[in-house]
Amino acid sequence: MNITDFTPEERAIVEKEITERLRDMFYMKKNKYIQVAIRRLETAGEMDGEDRININFSFVLVWNDLLQIVGRERRLINGS
């Protein structure tokens, strides 16, 4: 199966679901990432007003995540 096998409606559902998962993940881990950034600032020394503060966040999906989203939608449409 390939992403091109998804209908436009299924693609929209996948996009919405990934957006929701990303929101949930960030919500659950935001404090951890902010605490790490604060600890780095404590050891950074004197900062200039233009110094950047980076907070890195990685969100990883596997192909089966997308298949599960589409499979659930197809099951609901078919009434199973």
Kindly describe this structure:
This protein has 80 residues and is an all-alpha fold. It has one domain. It has helices at 8-42, 63-77. The longest helix is centred in the N-terminal third of the chain and has 35 residues, at 8-42. The chain is elongated. The model has no long low-confidence stretch (mean pLDDT 89).
- The Cα radius of gyration reads 19 Å
- Per the principal axes of the C-alpha atoms, what is the gross shape? elongated
* Biggest sheet layout: none
Helix content: 55-70%
* Class by alpha and beta content: mainly alpha
Q: What are the segments in which pLDDT stays under 50 over at least 5 consecutive residues?
A: none
List keywords for this structure.
single chain; 80 residues; 2 helices
Which helices and strands, and how do they pair?
Layout lengths: L7 H35 L20 H15 L3
Outline of the structure:
This protein is mainly α and 80 residues long. The chain contains 2 helices and no strands.
